[in-house]
Amino acid sequence: MPTQLPWHQIDTVLLDMDGTLIDLHFDSHLWQQLVPERYAERLELPLAEAKARIDTCYHAVSGTLDWYCVDYWSQTLGLDIRALKQEILEKIQWRPNAIPFLTELRAAGKQLVLFTNAHPASLSVKEARLGLASHLDLMVSTHELGWSKESQYCWQALAERLAFDPARTLFVDDSERILQAAADFGIGYQLAIQNPDSQQRPQQIIRFPAIHDYAELLPLSR
Questions:
Q1: Phi, psi of 138 (to 5 degrees)
Q2: Of 149, 178, 205, 212, which sits most exposed with the smallest number of CB within 10 A?
């Protein structure tokens, strides 16, 4: 799909964090490798069995706030997730050309809002590492709203908190399911990220315009 956007019709840009502004590799490594390894060590299990048990736990709460909750997983798995994150801070990296993209959006007068399902503890770790707030007007974790972005209740809660016109808003995310939730709410424009994890193969996006690199959108005035 083409990636040209009618910027003159867009006042607000809502941006996901993990896989959208930040390389998803940090989270992929944490949840798919480090957590299973430490869980296997704690219970003295073969790694394959540990992964199978954890995957069952993951699927049980997929799409809910618990799936994104550091405290939930610390309690469920008996691991200090906050401490594990501190071991791999070097993996927290911007996606290519994210900063130039944000810089141009700000220069064009767009309202820039980070809108993430990440737990506030996860958000604070990444903010401390990258200085996210300096590039944005506001950062909102769905944990503050009580629902994940998959739910229409979450979008309703955001509309009560944030002054924006959904029809003149662009939402950027790496999940088609969440992009569809935004469209269902009435967000005017959606943009998908094809390669949220730099270490994995790109995903196939069917329903929405998609990009590999923000450079594809620059300059905004072209």
A1: -160, 150
A2: 212
Cα-based distances in Å from 208 to 19, 88, 154, 171, 220: 16, 33, 21, 11, 19
Q: Is residue 1 part of a domain?
A: no
| pLDDT values of the chain reduced to their tens digit, one per residue, 222 residues | 446 899 999 999 999 999 999 999 999 999 999 999 999 999 999 999 999 999 999 999 988 899 999 999 999 999 999 999 999 999 999 999 999 999 999 999 999 999 999 999 999 999 999 999 999 999 999 999 999 999 999 999 999 999 999 999 999 999 999 999 999 999 999 999 999 999 999 999 999 999 999 999 999 876
Domain of 68?
Answer: 26-90
Enter the tokens of residue 163.
Answer: 């002054």
Last residue of a domain, one of 90, 114, 139: 90
| Residues 190 and 124 occupy one common structural domain | yes
Query: What are the Cα distances from residue 200, in Å, to 28, 55, 178?
Result: 10, 19, 20
Assigned domain for 82 exists: yes
Same domain flag for 35 and 143: no
